[in-house]
Structures are given as C-alpha cells and as structure tokens.
Amino acid sequence: MKGLIMKTYSLTAVALAALLCVGSLQAQVTPPRPVPAATAAAPVAPTAPATAAALPAPMIAAVRQAIVNNPEVQARWHNFTASQAERDAGRAGFRPQVDVNYGIGRESNRAPGINTGWYTRHGGSLTLNQMLFDGGFTRNEVQRLEYAELVRYYELLEVVENVALEAARAYVDVARFSALTEEAKLNYVEHRILARQIDERVGAGVGSMPTSRPVAWRWPSPTC
Hints:
Layout: E1 4-6, H1 13-21, H2 23-28, E2 34-36, H3 48-54, H4 57-68, H5 71-91, E3 97-111, E4 114-129, H6 137-203, H7 209-218
Helix pairs in contact: 1-3, 1-4, 1-6, 4-6, 5-6, 6-7
C-alpha cells in the first residue's frame, strides 16, 4: 500500500516501563501494523527496557496497580481494541464474499381458466464475489481506519504515561517522607542520648548548668 510502511509503535521510557508493568496490556498489544509515513520518524526509546529493569520492585508494583485499576486507562484500551476490530472489518473488502441463499414456501397460481392449485416451491443459490476494482474505496477506507487506530493508540499511551507519572511521583513522595521520618527518629535518639550524657556530667560536677540549658531548650515539651 503506497504511503504506508511497517513500523514498530514507539514508546517513551515512562510509557514502556508502565506497559511492561501491566501484564494484561503487554499480552494483548498486537504486532506492528502499517502506519502513515508521516509518523515513521518518531524516535524509538532504545534504553526503555533498561530503564524499566532499573526501577525498584515496589515502584513497579505501585505503577502496575495504578494503571490496572484506573478506569480511564481501561476505557482508552477498549477504544484501541475497538479501532483494531474496525480496521479488520474494513480489510474484509479485499477478501472474497460468499452468499448462500435458500428458500422454501407454498404457492398457488390462479388465473382465468388456470388453476394449478397449491404447490411447494423451494430453491437455493450460491454466489461468490471478489472485488477487483472499486475506485480505491476499500484501500482508502482501510487507510483511514489505520489512522484512527493510530490515534487511539497514542491516546492510550497518553493516559498510561500520565497515570504512571502520577503513581511514580506519589511513590517518590512517600519514600522521601518516610526517609525524613526515619532521619527525624534517629536525630531524636541521638539528641536524647546527648542530653542524658550532659545531665550526667552536670550531676557529677564536671559540667555546668549553662551547658545543659541549650540542650533542654531544644528538647520537645510534653505539650508539643
């Protein structure tokens, strides 16, 4: 088909990492289809598999759950599969068409001077048609449906990327705040040990009260 070439659908690093997390989407994505030449120059991300493999397992699980449970992703996925079915239906115009007809019934023929009475009529036909030339209608219709499929495909990638990005941001925020909480706990323990040591020095007469006051001021009060 003129103006069309075979091309593997391009994925960005984020989209590929997200799609690799979703077993159901990865298993159902069809092999490369002919797409418009205008989109053939879209860059392919060669480092995307390495990027996906480098992600931590909990993050992959979080992204997978966010994508699988997102209703908009499911809606875009069904729109994409529907566009594939429409494209396949359009390609049926290139294939032979077989029609089988069979009928049976009761008839009577009455006319002045003629009366055949009732009789049973039955008959059948088998018709085989093959499109040879239709002015390019079928070819252009298939091309239009392939463009529509490509639109649905990139709409699916758009929502997958957005959901994966939001899930990754949420995971990073939780991980950062968890790390800050752990650091705060360690800081609290170290501060408490230091305060106890200073109190012991003051009680033993080695240190002075002004030395322990700054530590006591930084100590959290029971009302905090």
